[in-house]
Fold this sequence. Notes:
Elements: E1 4-7, H1 21-33, E2 38-39, H2 53-67, E3 72-76, H3 82-95, E4 99-103, H4 112-123, E5 129-133, H5 135-138, H6 144-151, E6 156-161, H7 167-175, E7 179-182, H8 188-193, E8 198-201, H9 208-219, H10 223-239, H11 247-255, H12 272-284
Parallel strand pairs: 1-2, 1-8, 2-3, 3-4, 4-5, 5-6, 6-7, 7-8
Helix pairs in contact: 1-2, 2-3, 3-4, 9-10, 11-12
Amino acid sequence: xxxxxxxxxxxxxxxxxxxxxxxxxxxxxxxxxxxxxxxxxxxxxxxxxxxxxxxxxxxxxxxxxxxxxxxxxxxxxxxxxxxxxxxxxxxxxxxxxxxxxxxxxxxxxxxxxxxxxxxxxxxxxxxxxxxxxxxxxxxxxxxxxxxxxxxxxxxxxxxxxxxxxxxxxxxxxxxxxxxxxxxxxxxxxxxxxxxxxxxxxxxxxxxxxxxxxxxxxxxxxxxxxxxxxxxxxxxxxxxxxxxxxxxxxxxxxxxxxxxxxxxxxxxxxxxxxxxxxxxxxxxxxxxx
Length: 288
């Protein structure tokens, strides 16, 4: 079901802090023109923790409506309360999303059995589920035996691996038939080399065509060409995570004149020395 580059798209704000749906639609058009396979609205990069429930659903609705089946829309509808995740997922399904990204519940740190029941209840809704493992934010792994158990559910179709572990791709593929998507831009190439089918990318917000081409080349086995692109983008892979995501990528898009550089607290602007470093990297790539 999934193959290619999926952009973890930012949520742009107006100067007054409201969601900028005009710029959001423009960003979606930019992604489509750049050849991505899909977008992932209202994930971590979309600042989901600071959106209201109403805004969260409206961003998904606008994404699905504007994408109009030109690309896939994988809606971020995870939560650490199962009922909230269910309600958001039901709304995403009604809005026309193609799938849902379900982060491991954070803070309350459920047991493997709790995780199984949580993800299964959401998958029962009928919208294809992409599991999202990111222990750096959630303090919880999805152990391989649990991945295998969850993969038996027909509604659970893929897993996003964002723990910096290339070896997990081989472990998942050996255990079950779930598709694996890299959750780390810098590890996209090595993960594809051992069986991943694509990436949910932050970097493609800024360079969708290049990330899409890197993934296409890698999936086609043209690794030397893919490596050249990987090496070209290495500085951006690092500097878009110089501070917590999505602060650097929103700063980068603002430098390009594509959005206003507005965050919602507790997120705030880059430190001056980090801004200078990111700007220099973007100059080298002719982005500014």
